[in-house]
Amino acid sequence: MDKFESAARLEAPSDEEALAAIRKLIFFGGVKKAAIEQCKQDAVAPGVVCYLSITDKHDLVLPKVLRFVKIDGVWASQN
Fold this sequence. Notes:
2 helices, single chain
C-alpha cells in the first residue's frame, strides 16, 4: 500500500461525530456546529488531528485544531 492509498483510507469522524465528541468536553459548552475541514493521522498518538470550524452558542465561528481517537467505536476528542 502506498502513501496515497493509506491517506485515502484514513478513518476520521464525521461532522456529527466530531460535534458529539466536542460536546463531551466541559470547556466547549454551547457548541452548536462542527465542520471538519481536514484530518490527518496523528504523528504522536493514536487517532487523527483535525482542522475544523466550530460555531458556538453566540454564532461565532472559531477555527480549531483538535485530536480525535475512536474508543470502542465512538469518537472522543482531546485538546
